[in-house]
Specification:
It is globular, with a radius of gyration of 22 Å. Strands 1, 10, 11, 12, 13, 14, 15, 16 and 17 form a 9-stranded mixed beta sheet that branches. Strands 2-9-8-7-6-5-4-3 form an 8-stranded parallel beta sheet. The mean pLDDT is 96. With 368 residues, the protein is α/β, with parallel strands linked by helices. Helix 4 packs across helix 5 and helix 6 crosses helix 7.
Length: 368
């Protein structure tokens, strides 16, 4: 029988690790901020995909969690009884999975088309299940969402009239705002004006939104400046990552997630190679100044300058640190959500001690 590792030194690398004390401090800060500003906190579980951590978020004060896929909804349902699917479920297979969630789960779905709305309503009627709806509007990212207040009104009115559907309000995602927190003033003013236009149009049409759901980690700490917002859905800030730190949405000492890696080669001058490449960190570029695909937790000036599938290349040009083969480092990825999705499990750590093991249960589509 294989002995379970008890310390970081016993982990085979690459391995994703979470500093549990930093994670809990991040949860406390988020909950306190939302309470102080009268905002409902509905964190996005796509970052961690782990029901035990969703339960931790609820214990910390979250009203429920947000999910992006039917699989995430299935995984979170045993731990959380209030779920928002912030993605339009199109197709019978996905709708059937949603309708099969436990009856105690209060389910809300975000969508932006009559086709998605009517498909959801038909599935809800067939299952005898009431389902909430949030009409999604495009707040500036130009990815999904109805394009005008009038379109929002039309879809909201239809949702309010359908059997087994409860119109609950609107949702938005300000993913286009990725600048440094201190430089978001103009973008947040424009966003607030957009939200107000949509909310006012709905109220004037007799379908006022009970819920106005929005927010992201980059804008999280300024969510109270968005007039009319009632609920926020940050995901990344349970762990934080290099991008979050670079834009000033967290301090480097608030980054809880990293990938433990081993130096496997120092043969090429000016660099060291670790065993964490694109299959552990992802190949997502930094959405801020700096470049590269990650940075060392202990030495943030040392950047992962390149990745292939199993190799991460550390740039040593700007440091006199010279690692040896066999040394271990912890790499903070640019984007934690996509790195977590590559892992089979996360390890909770306190110092060098392993204190928890969490399978990443929400990956993929699950059993078919």
């Amino acid at each position: 029988m294989t002995k379970n590792p008890m310390t970081l030194d016993e982990l085979e690398t690459p391995a994703a690790v979470v500093d549990v004390d930093r994670m809990h401090a991040n949860l406390r800060r988020a909950a306190e901020y939302c309470r102080a500003h009268g905002l409902a906190w509905r964190p996005h579980a796509k970052t961690h995909k782990i029901p035990a951590l969703a339960a931790e978020q609820v214990r910390a004060g979250a009203v429920g969690v947000t999910v992006a896929t039917p699989r995430e909804a299935e995984v979170m349902a045993p731990a959380v009884d209030d779920l928002l699917l912030a993605y339009p479920p199109v197709g019978r297979a996905k709708l059937d999975r949603l309708m099969a969630l436990p009856a105690r789960v209060r389910l809300t779905v975000g969508l932006d088309s009559r086709e998605a709305l009517r498909g959801l309503a038909e599935a809800a009627r067939a299952a005898g299940r009431r389902v909430g709806v949030l009409v999604e509007f495009d707040a500036g990212m130009h990815r999904v969402g109805v394009q005008s207040p009038g379109d929002a009104v039309a879809l909201a009115r239809e949702a309010a009239e359908l059997e087994m559907v409860d119109y609950r309000g609107v949702m938005l995602y300000p993913g286009h705002i990725r600048s440094r927190v201190a430089e978001q003033d103009a973008a947040l003013r424009d966003l607030s004006a957009t939200v107000r236009r949509v909310a006012d149009a709905l109220a004037d049409a007799g379908v006022p939104p009970e819920v106005v759901s929005g927010g992201s980690t980059p804008t999280f700490w300024r969510s109270h400046e968005i007039g009319g917002l009632t609920e926020v859905r940050p995901g990344t800030n349970i762990f934080n990552d290099r991008t979050t730190a670079e834009i000033g949405a967290c301090g480097w000492d608030e980054v809880a997630y990293s990938v433990l890696a081993t130096v496997v080669s120092t043969s090429v001058p000016g660099q060291a190679v670790v065993d964490a490449g694109s299959k552990a960190l992802s190949r997502e570029e930094l959405r801020a100044e700096g470049g590269g695909f990650g940075a060392l937790l202990e030495r943030p000036g040392v950047v992962v300058k390149g990745v292939s599938e199993e190799h991460g290349l550390l740039d040593l040009a700007g440091t006199d640190w010279r690692p040896r083969v066999g040394d271990r480092v912890r790499v903070v990825p640019n984007h934690v959500c996509v790195s977590v999705n590559l892992q089979e499990r996360l390890w909770g750590i306190r110092g060098d001690e392993l204190v928890a093991e969490w399978p990443v249960a929400g990956r993929g589509r699950g059993p078919l």
